[in-house]
Amino acid sequence: MAVASAPFPELIVVMGMTLRRSEGSLWRHGCFFRYWLANAVDLVGSGVTQVALPLVAVVELHVSVWQAALLSFAQKCPPLLVSLPAGALADRHRKRPVMVGAALAGGAAFLVIPLADAMGRLSLGLLYGVALVGSVAEVFGSTARISLLPSLLPRSRLMEANSKLGGINSLADSAGSQLGAVVVTALGAAHAVCLDVISYLVCAVLLGRIRTHEPDVARPGRKTTFRGEIAEGLRYVWSHPTIRPLVLAATAYVAVMAFLTTLWPVYLLRRLHYSSAALGTTLSVGALGGFCGALVVRPLVARYGPVRVMLVALALAPFTVAPLLLATPGRFWQVAVGVGMFVQVGCAVAQGSTQRTVRQAACDPALQGRMLATSRWVVYGSQPVAALLAGAVGSWYGLWDGLALGAVTLAVPFLVLRLSSLRDSLPDSPPGSPSSVPSDVPRAAAAVLEESPRSHTCPHDESDVS
Fold this sequence. Notes:
The chain is built from 20 helices and no strands. It is globular and about 55 Å long. The chain is mainly α. The longest helix is centred in the C-terminal third of the chain and has 32 residues, at 331-362. It has helices at 9-17, 30-60, 65-76, 78-92, 95-118, 124-152, 158-187, 189-208, 226-239, 243-271, 276-304, 306-316, 322-326, 331-362, 368-380, 382-396, 399-409, 411-418, 422-425, 442-449. Helix 7 (158-187) runs antiparallel to helix 8 (189-208). The chain has a single domain (10-18, 26-213, 240-427), classed as Growth Hormone, Chain: A (Up-down Bundle), CATH 1.20.1250.
């Protein structure tokens, strides 16, 4: 494979090939449809909890800004603690049992909240524990799930698949937020979490019905340890000319967003006097922005190239917080904040789908799980620190000052990517154009990517989904 002269031939071919219509619809791929639907169901339930959990803490338990930050810390800490073991586990074992087991564990954790409320035992400490356990289960499940996708489909379909997943995830998140607002109003915040429990069970059933072939990972002759495999994943990501700058830019972006999302729910509920319905509507509008971002990302990448798409999306991010900083109580500013969140989430989904496809296509298949886990460990490991920092800034300087600081700092991810070596690894011109493809790349890359269709065929009838 001619990688030396072209640091990233795979994406050149992938971006060009994913736009071909002759490969057949992914909706007729039964296993992908179940995978896609499981993601949607999972996101609907999580959207309900995204509305309900802050309301349980802020409205029912009357937590302080610092206590709300600690709850956010409990949700965001597990990626730092268990991402690396989760990646090694995903590369060592079959991914489907890990996905199903994680879904069942997450459902069991969140079931504790409505049960404790019914018994009058609901407390902040219990919320911390549920958030921690649920997030640990999510890390193991999502690591196995995302690293399964390159085994489920040929690399030439990854951009299309990630776009479809991004679109339905945004719609499902929107539906979950709206549903959460309705159910919270009707049943109360604690009992609304029951919908998330049901979604975990449905997700487990759907994932359990995926019967794709998972290729055996070739092991070196020498015996490797769990720690050694984790270290191999760390070295691989850090030394990769394409994956490393993407991970660094994503780390900066996720850290700043974790800082902002720790503060803005409290700001909306207490300073702008949002109701539960208004909070759910704002979240759902943002999720619809993500759906629109997923719709436009493929043609944008095809026309302008992956680097330009990611840079523009990151450049717009700081401006999307402006309506929140200018807002006062009232319907007009609720609409303005919703528009800002619409653009923010749309840009996040567009650049996120692009960078995920880049990393999946560039990565050695034997290291998919560890690459993903290492990326998550670095990227999402910044979240708990950012959440604690947000709590400190919000408590000492005020919520508005904290949000303003976060808005300014959102320029950092753009600068990290813009000043990185990524332009040397990815073409600036649109994928597939003659100027973007070195003369010695297409045949070598195509040889790698033209996999046998049987390796990505669902054992069930591929026409079982119309």
